[in-house]
């Protein structure tokens, strides 16, 4: 009988050690747990264990540093890193140092068990051997700690070790260009150029020569296009849905053959670029409408990355708002802070222009007002000013049906229940989660006028008042 695989677990949090020890034991593995990085290192040196699961910050050492050392002395021993400091930098560092997988805490036990099974059964590839020394800088390019952003960090981290074509989708202002830059800056081609081309910003008839270059008359030779400029680096094709048909056909040929010719030229040139494309359009609809080539779509959509709208990750709003305030401060805008109610207002807003809209709002407030504390009244006034907003309704996307997002949340609760989280008052909790933003946003809309809000909601005024009290919704009358 083959012995059971042994898993070495290092985490200074006792509850994590207990939960992992039990779950892995139940799944049929042998488990050794320790709160110390040094004990883990000792076990690894002694040749123990078939798999390592380690935390990052431990009292006597750093799990990420251990990954490098473990991979050096035992390249076949896989390491899964788990961390509560779920930033893009941690994910990239873990992956580039050769961790098999990176999991942001809190994680799903089922997911962990699936990763463990994969780590123990997939044969170790040459490509997994330690990567060249990484140089990710500590300044964070992407802000956000929500579950969805953590998923994005993991994908970006994984994609930095390959040249696969990536298709980023997401509404306007969700950070598509920022993600494309991160893929480049942390990736294998970081010493090459990053060239961005926005299809919507170039006259249609010039797109082909812009991308592929053109032959100039006489003996003048050719004018290089963006493909050539990006050689050795990354070519970011923004608003790919706006690419004219002829350029689509040419691009498809480049992707198929790895070569291109300039407009009017005949010598094939080798295309040495990593392509990252982005769009805020629904390309499937464009395909149906016959304006986007389906074959090109499949060539580009090798790895799809969907950036969620800001309203789907409201928990990131305070972090982002503080980040933009800090940026304003660095630019000489003086010290400002948002009071609690102002922050609540920001979290309740629907953000049709996503992170860009939030960034612009903070900049506008810092520029227009000199008071140190930014209040809810001030935020309300700026949010309600239609002239100040660059986000006219025709730029807004069709929102996801409410039933879909509610169902997703309920499914998450139920799943957590199956994982062992005690579920009680589920009905009341879900109703409150829907009711609170409904009432809060209606009040923002009516600038705190409860009579108007009650009319809009179709509620009796006393009922509304009671709900405001029960749900602990802050009541502030707006500036008119
Ligand atoms: N997660 C984030 N952390 C910090 N800043 C962000 C984040 N996401 C977006 N931003 C900022 O928001 C602004 C818009 O981002 P970006 O240009 O990348 O969006 P986009 O999706 O490419 O928009 P569009 O589709 O309109 O071109 C930028 O100034 C960017 O720095």
UniProtKB/TrEMBL annotation:
Signal peptide interval: none
One Pfam family named in its UniProt record: Sigma54_activat
UniProt superkingdom: Bacteria
Annotated ranges, domain Sigma-54 factor interaction: 142-367
Localization per record: Cytoplasm
Record's keyword terms, sorted: Activator, ATP-binding, Cytoplasm, DNA-binding, Nitrogen fixation, Nucleotide-binding, Phosphoprotein, Repressor, Transcription, Transcription regulation, Two-component regulatory system
Entry-linked SUPFAM superfamilies: CheY-like, Homeodomain-like, P-loop containing nucleoside triphosphate hydrolases
Transmembrane helix among keywords: no
Modified residues annotated as 4-aspartylphosphate in this record: 55
UniProt keyword Phosphoprotein, yes or no: yes
Domain Response regulatory: 6-120
Coiled coil: none
The protein's role, per its UniProt record: Member of the two-component regulatory system NtrB/NtrC, which controls expression of the nitrogen-regulated (ntr) genes in response to nitrogen limitation. Phosphorylated NtrC binds directly to DNA and stimulates the formation of open promoter-sigma54-RNA polymerase complexes.
Protein name: DNA-binding transcriptional regulator NtrC
Source organism of the structure: Acetobacter lambici
């Amino acid at each position: 009988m083959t012995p059971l695989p042994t898993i070495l677990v290092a985490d200074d949090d006792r509850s994590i050690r207990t939960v992992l020890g039990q779950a892995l034991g139940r799944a049929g593995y042998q488990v050794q747990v320790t709160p110390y990085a040094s004990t883990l290192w000792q076990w690894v040196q002694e040749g123990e264990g078939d798999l390592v699961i380690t935390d990052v910050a431990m009292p006597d050492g750093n799990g990420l540093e251990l990954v490098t050392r473990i991979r050096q002395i035992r390249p076949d021993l896989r390491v899964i890193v788990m961390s509560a400091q779920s930033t893009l930098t941690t994910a990239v560092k873990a992956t580039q140092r050769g961790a098999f997988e990176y999991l942001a805490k809190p994680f799903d036990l089922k997911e962990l068990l699936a990763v463990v099974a994969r780590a123990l059964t997939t044969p170790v590839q040459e490509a997994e051997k330690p990567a060249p020394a990484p140089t990710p800088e500590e300044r964070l390019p992407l802000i956000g700690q929500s579950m969805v952003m953590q998923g994005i960090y993991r994908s970006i981290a994984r994609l930095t070790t390959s040249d696969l074509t990536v298709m980023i989708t997401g509404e306007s202002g969700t950070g598509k260009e920022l993600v494309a830059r991160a893929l480049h800056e942390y990736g294998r081609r970081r010493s090459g150029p990053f060239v961005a081309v926005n299809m919507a910003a170039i006259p249609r008839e010039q797109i082909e020569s812009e991308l592929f270059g053109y032959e100039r008359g006489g003996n003048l030779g050719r004018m290089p296009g963006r493909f050539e400029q990006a050689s050795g680096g990354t070519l970011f094709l923004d608003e790919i849905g706006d690419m004219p048909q002829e350029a689509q056909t040419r691009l498809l040929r480049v992707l198929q053959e790895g070569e291109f010719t300039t407009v009017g030229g005949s010598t094939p040139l080798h295309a040495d670029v990593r392509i990252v494309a982005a769009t805020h359009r629904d390309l499937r609809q464009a395909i149906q409408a016959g304006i986007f080539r389906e074959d090109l779509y499949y060539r580009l959509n090798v790895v799809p990355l969907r950036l969620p709208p800001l309203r789907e990750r409201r928990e990131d709003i305070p972090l982002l708002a503080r980040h933009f305030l800090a940026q304003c401060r660095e630019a000489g805008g003086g010290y400002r802070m948002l009071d609690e109610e102002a922050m609540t207002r920001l979290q309740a807003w629907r953000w049709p222009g996503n992170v860009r809209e939030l960034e612009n709002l903070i900049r506008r407030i810092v520029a227009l007002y000199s008071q140190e504390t930014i209040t809810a009244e001030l935020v309300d006034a700026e949010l309600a000013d239609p002239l100040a907003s660059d986000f006219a309704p025709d730029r807004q996307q069709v929102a996801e049906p409410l039933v879909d997002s509610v169902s997703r949340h309920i499914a998450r609760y139920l799943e957590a229940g199956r994982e062992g989280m005690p579920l009680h008052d589920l009905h009341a909790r879900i109703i409150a989660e829907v009711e609170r933003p409904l009432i809060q946003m209606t009040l923002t809309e009516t600038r705190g006028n409860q009579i108007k809000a009650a009319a809009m909601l179709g509620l009796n005024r006393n009922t509304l008042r009671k709900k405001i009290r029960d749900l602990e919704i802050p009541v502030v009358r707006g500036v008119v």
